[in-house]
Amino acid sequence: MADLGEITEAVKAAQDGGCTEVALLYCVSGCQAPAADCNLKTLADMATHFGVPVCGVEYGRKSDEVANVKSRRFLYFVKDIKAGDAITKDCARSVRPGYGLAPKHLNQVIGRSRAAGVEANTAVTEGHLA
């Protein structure tokens, strides 16, 4: 259930860590998937894009997988921040479910100043890093 950005990040992390034999698995999460859900052309596309072997079937999230993505952790502001205030560690937290930036981006958020205020319980997005 990874998107293109997450796959790119995983391949880069493996290669940066010294892995010289990377392969991607492209899987259908449901059994007896209809042929229309398999999108086999994506196997060749992924192999070309990443330059690694790809095997399996299915690419992207089906409608029944969207709920699983919502159960991942995301960054949220947990207290109000006034315009001009710096974002501190106690301002943002990794929570689920939700949408927003992944927790790995917390260090990019901490220390930033907000041109506009932000209310508590707001998902941290790329726009908050601008």
UniProtKB/TrEMBL annotation:
Residues 74-130 form the AFP-like domain. It comes from the Bacteria. It holds the Pfam family NeuB. Gene3D superfamilies: Aldolase class I, Antifreeze-like/N-acetylneuraminic acid synthase C-terminal domain. Transmembrane segments: none annotated. PANTHER family: N-ACETYLNEURAMINATE SYNTHASE, PSEUDAMINIC ACID SYNTHASE. This is NeuB family protein. It comes from Sulfitobacter litoralis.
